[in-house]
Specification:
about 5% strand; mainly alpha; about 200 residues; rod-shaped
Length: about 200
């Protein structure tokens, strides 16, 4: 009989699952059930509990592996984006130097470059998220086939994990790009003055 506030429910059997932390006290649990003479009423399957615990631990390991893989994917794509931005700034260094020489303020040039970089970041975000999702899906599928356990990843989980790291990398790239622009401007201006 199960009591729930003021309502009574009669049932022939009741199944309950308790969380398992370890199996050091499995024999003690069985002895306690025997002493209370409820061993027949309570089913304690140590082998099944051990399998469930092993699968839960394995899923935790797979989750961390997938997280590390996603970090490496985002880092590789961010470095590729940085190389593209570096070549972009180098190709426009003479243009920025000439514009600076005719009287355009450095703040205006930085503002233009900032919005250009921001637009490139947004476009790259639209490309990185699907590619990262495809890579993680393939890696998860391989893990399921190899070890029989995987971590299903939804689009919301991918965005939640990717957006903070991508934002941090984006801020770093913008700051480094600004320093590269300053260095390229000084180099181009000094080259023009020498000529």
């Amino acid at each position: 009989m199960v009591l729930c506030k003021n309502v009574k429910f009669k049932c022939k059997s009741l199944t309950a699952y308790a969380p398992v932390n370890d199996f050091s006290n499995s024999l003690a649990v069985l002895q306690s059930l025997q002493q209370k003479n409820i061993e027949k009423q309570v089913s304690y399957n140590a082998d099944l509990a051990e399998q469930i615990f092993y699968i839960s631990q394995l899923r935790s390991v797979v989750k961390y592996v997938m997280l590390i893989l996603s970090v490496f994917v985002l880092l590789a794509m961010t470095l590729s984006l940085f190389s593209v931005l570096h070549s972009y700034i180098n190709s426009n260094a003479k243009y920025y130097a000439m514009v600076r020489a005719i009287g355009v303020t450095r703040l205006t040039i930085f503002t233009i470059l900032f919005f250009e970089l921001l637009l490139l970041m947004l476009v790259s975000m639209l490309l990185i998220v699907p590619v990262s999702g495809l890579f993680l899906f393939i890696a998860n599928y391989c893990l399921i086939n190899i070890i029989g356990a995987g971590v299903p990843i939804t689009l919301s989980q991918l965005l939640e994990s990717a957006f903070p790291m991508f934002s941090l990398f984006s801020i770093g790239i913008i700051v480094i790009s600004m320093f590269l622009l300053i260095w390229d401007q000084h180099r181009e201006i000094s080259t023009i003055l020498k000529k």
